[in-house]
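Components:
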Amino acid sequence: MSTILYLTQIEFGPGVRSTLPRALTEIGVKRPLVVSDPGVAESGLLDQATEGAAPDAPRFLDVPPNPTEAAVTAALAIYRAEECDGLIAVGGGSPIDLAKGVALLAAHSGQLESYAAIYGGIVRIGAVAPVIAMPTTAGTGAEVGRAALLTLADGRKLGFISPNLIPKRAICDPELTLGLPRRLTAATGLDALSHCIETFLSPRINPPAESIALDGAGRIWRNIRNAAAHGQNLDTRTEMMMGALEGGLAFQKGLGAVHALSHALGGLPDLKLHHGTLNAILMPAVVRFNADHVGDKLDRLKKAIGLDQSDDLADELDRANVELGIPTGLGALGVTEQMFEWIVERALADHSTPTNPRQPTAEDYRALLTQAMY
Amino acid sequence: MSTILYLTQIEFGPGVRSTLPRALTEIGVKRPLVVSDPGVAESGLLDQATEGAAPDAPRFLDVPPNPTEAAVTAALAIYRAEECDGLIAVGGGSPIDLAKGVALLAAHSGQLESYAAIYGGIVRIGAVAPVIAMPTTAGTGAEVGRAALLTLADGRKLGFISPNLIPKRAICDPELTLGLPRRLTAATGLDALSHCIETFLSPRINPPAESIALDGAGRIWRNIRNAAAHGQNLDTRTEMMMGALEGGLAFQKGLGAVHALSHALGGLPDLKLHHGTLNAILMPAVVRFNADHVGDKLDRLKKAIGLDQSDDLADELDRANVELGIPTGLGALGVTEQMFEWIVERALADHSTPTNPRQPTAEDYRALLTQAMY
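Structure:
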C-alpha cells in the first residue's frame, strides 16, 4: 500500500478500499451518490468496494456501457432530490465518466454540450462536486484522468476536459479486479496499453509523462497474458492496475489517432462498442501509420517492454490481440464501410487528433479504418 | 515550451518567464510580494524574470542562504504592511522556501515551529497564500516540492511539509540559468541528482516517481559536466532544468540519509553550508551504506544513466565530484568531529531518515560523517 500524489491523491494496493470512509471524511462528503453499473452491482463488487462507507447512500446503477447525456440527467435528478454533496464512482471508465458529468452539472448551469472541449468548454469548467473513483478494471485510467467522454442525445461522443474533473481521490484496489473475466481483462488491459503507447508517441514535450508511460507499458506488456489466463493472481492484477494507473497519469500529455477513431466509433448509435476493444484493434494500424514520424521512440518503446530491436511493434500488437482473443477487426463488431464518413468526420474533430505524431487527413482515417476492418 | 500538470501547473522552456503576468491573472494575485536574494537581484536576473509583471510590487531581497525564521518574520511584516495577496519567489531553493514560509504564516496563526513536520504540522497546514516559483538554478526542485526547510531561531533546520505548500505555478525558464557560475551549476546540479538517486532508492512503492527519477538522473548525469564547462549552452541548461524539475516531482516518494544529514549540517549555526554541496559530498558514502539494501536498483540506476554494469556508482559519484570541483570533504567546509553529536541527533530526528533504504543508527551516521570528512 502506498500513497501517491501526482494529479490527485491516489491510494494504491490490495485492500485500500478500506480507506473509503476516511476519504469521505477528509474530502468532506457527507451524503454521496454512489454511481455504478448493473454488472458491478450484481457481482457483489459494489458492496465489496463500499463496505462500511455511507451505508444508506442513494445509488444510481443504470450507467450504460458508453455513458450518455440522458444517464447523466437521470443521475443528476437523484443527486439533487437526495441532496447529495459528492459522488463515489465504482466500476470501469463508464461509471467514473458519468460521475464526472454529474459533478460538472451539479455545479454549473446550462447545457452539457456547452462544456465540451471542442466548444471551448475547458475554460468554462470551474470547481465541480467532489468525486471519489474506485476502478474495478485495470484499464481506462479515468480514476486520475481529467476527461470524461459522454455521448450526447444526437450521438456525438464528446470529450469534457478540465483539471477540475480529476477525481479528488482515486482508490485503486487490485482485489476489486480479481474476478474480471478473461475477455474484459484483455480488452481493458489493451486500453491501458494504448494510453501508454499513444501518450509516449505524441509529440508534445513532457518527459515525466513519457517516463511514466514507458514504465506502464512495460508492466502491462509483461503481465497482460498472465492476467487474462490466471485472473486470481493478485501480484499480476496489482501490476496491471499500476500500469493502467500510469497510463492515466501520463495521458494528460495527449493521445492520438487510436483514440480519435475509437471515440468516434464509440458514438455509433446502433452499436455499443467497447472502448478498450476498439483501441486494441486500431493500435497496430496506427502504429504503422506513425512509424516514420516518431524518431527513435519505437526503439525506446520496444526496449522498455522487453522486445528485441528487430521485432516489429505493430506485428507484436497484432499477435497479442490474437493471443488475447480480441475480435480480428472492426468488421466483426458490426462496423461497415457505409459508416466510415460518419466516423471520419467525428475523428477529425476529436480532441485527440491534434496530438497524433502524424496529422491524419480524412483519407488517412479512411485508410486506417479499412486496415482495421478484418 | 510545454504545459505539464502533475503536482501543480508547470510552464517549462526557454522564454516561459513571459507567462508570469498571465499566471498572476489566472491565480488571482493582484498584489504580489516579490521574494529573492541579493545575488539574484544584483545580477539583473530578478528584473529579467519579472519583466512586465506587477512593476510596482514590493520586494523582499534579504533571503539568507539557508532561510531563517527571522527572515520569514521580516518578509511577512512587509507582506502585511503592503496588503499583499500572494508571492513571487525568484531564485534557488532559499527564496522559494522562504516564500512558502511567508505563505504559511500569512494564513495561519501561532508559532512557525508548531507547523514543522516532526511536530505533526502536516495535518495543521491548510490553504496558504498562493506562491509562484521561478527557479534560477537547476537544483532544488523547490518549485514543485511540498516542503520548505527553514532554520528556527535556535538553529534547528526543520522541514515544513504539506501539499498546500506546493507553489500554485512553477515557471521554469532555462534562460534564467545561463549565467549561473560553474561552481553553483555543479553544486545545484548534484543536488538535483541526489534527489533523483535518493528518491529512486527509497523503499516506498511509487513506480511513477521512480520512473521520473530515473529519467531525471539520466538527464543530469549526461549534461552536468557540459553545463558546468559551457554555461551558455541553452540545450544543456534546458536538459539540466528538466532533470531538476523531475527530481522535484519525484521526491514526494521520500528522500534518505543524504538529506537527513545535509538538513542537520545546514542548520549548523556558525557555518553557512550550501545544501547542494553537502549532498554531493555525502552521496558516495550513503550509496555505499545502502548498496546491499536496495535489491537490483543500483544496476537499474547505472543502466538509466549510461554507466556499465561493472562500474561502481559510488566511485563514479566521487569522480564526478572531483571533476566538478566540489570540495573534497566536510572537513574542507569547516565541519569538525566535535560537531558530530549535534549533527547526528538532528539527522536521526529528520523527516528523511525513515525513508532511507537501510535504517541508520547514531553509530551509522557517525561513520557516514567520518567517511565524508576528507
